[in-house]
Amino acid sequence: SYNGGFFRKLHGTDFWMQEFSSFTEKSLRTVYESNDGAVFIGCDNGLFKSTDQGATWKQVIEYGWVMRIVESDGVMLCQSQGGIQRSTDGGDNWEVVLNEGGVGIAVEVIENGFAAINFNTSSESRRIRVSYDGGTSWQAIDKGIPASLSIASIKQVGKYFFCGHPDGIFRSADNGKSWELLWPSIGEKVFNLEVVDGVIYAVAMDGGC
């Protein structure tokens, strides 16, 4: 829960057991278990890591909020107030790899790399970028999409990229070189996209993160 508290549902029961009672920070944003079994908690006061199932915690990012965390081929990325941050040592140390003056809006694992949305303070818009070298360098793939302050999400399903945009849902079949509008927006809402087992779910939400 956002105000503090973690619960795990026991398999085959209706019972929820409280977890990580030693974690004292509030305003929680996300919880993530890495491939090596470490647990990460992002909150409004940075990112914390535990390697002993929550008995003790180490703060690994000290500035601002941290939200979504993703991992692929030994590289971890997180969406943070400082931009998109990267770790190559299991989450012990982090560096900002995509910032452009603004915050990180979204980060995703794609085929052979990562995709991210960040806020660019020069253009005063949200930009979509991809990296195919483990988050070291990033290239823009949003040339064919109208510039906006409220681009919400970027997802990949098969060979297609999908973007949740204030104008609606856009799709690209050529890795972001060109885009087509698949479904128009609903009023002032922005579609936030999620993918489960190859199925795309689009939730119309107010603009923002």
Can you characterise this structure?
The chain has 209 residues and is mainly beta. Helices cover 0% and strands 54% of the residues. It is built from no helices and 20 strands. The protein has strands at residues 6-9, 16-19, 28-33, 39-43, 46-50, 58-61, 66-72, 75-80, 83-87, 95-98, 101-110, 113-120, 125-131, 139-140, 153-157, 160-165, 168-172, 180-184, 190-196, 199-205. The chain has a 4-stranded antiparallel β-sheet with strand order 3-4-5-6, with no helix packed on it. Strand 15 (153-157) and strand 16 (160-165) form a beta hairpin. The protein is globular, with a radius of gyration of 18 Å. The chain starts with 5 loop residues before the first strand and ends with a strand. The model has no long low-confidence stretch (mean pLDDT 94).
